[in-house]
């Protein structure tokens, strides 16, 4: 559940940043695969692509770090009582 929140925060943050500043990979994808995109939509599509790309990267990094942290602390899953 917390991973979804991390993804949404990263997605919104990188989408908003990409609307103001052009940076890869969104610009590369739009130039290579959607070259005929109208100019007024280019910024929005670039922002969404960057938001998804960097959101997934941050979500995976967070999930791996959380898993490593829990293993280091020795946190175990609760044991179900037998009937």
Describe the secondary-structure layout.
Blueprint: H1 2-20, H2 26-33, H3 39-73
Radius of gyration: 19 Å
* Total number of helices: 3
What proportion of the residues form beta strands (DSSP E)? Answer: under 5%
Largest sheet: none
Mean pLDDT: 89
Separation, N- and C-terminal Cα atoms: 30 Å
Describe this entry's structure for a reader.
It is a single chain. The protein has three helices and no strands. The chain is an all-alpha fold and 83 residues long. The chain has one domain (2-73). Helix content is 75%, strand content 0%. It has helices at 2-20, 26-33, 39-73. The longest helix has 35 residues, at 39-73.
Task: For this entry, give a set of tags.
single chain, 83 residues, mainly alpha, elongated
């Amino acid at each position: 559940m917390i991973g979804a929140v991390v993804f949404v925060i990263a997605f919104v943050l990188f989408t908003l940043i990409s609307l103001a500043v052009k940076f890869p990979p969104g610009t590369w994808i739009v130039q290579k695969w959607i070259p005929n995109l109208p100019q007024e939509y280019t910024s929005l599509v670039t922002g969404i692509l960057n938001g998804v790309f960097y959101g997934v990267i941050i979500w995976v990094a967070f999930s791996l770090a959380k898993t490593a942290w829990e293993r280091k602390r020795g946190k175990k899953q609760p044991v179900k009582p037998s009937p």
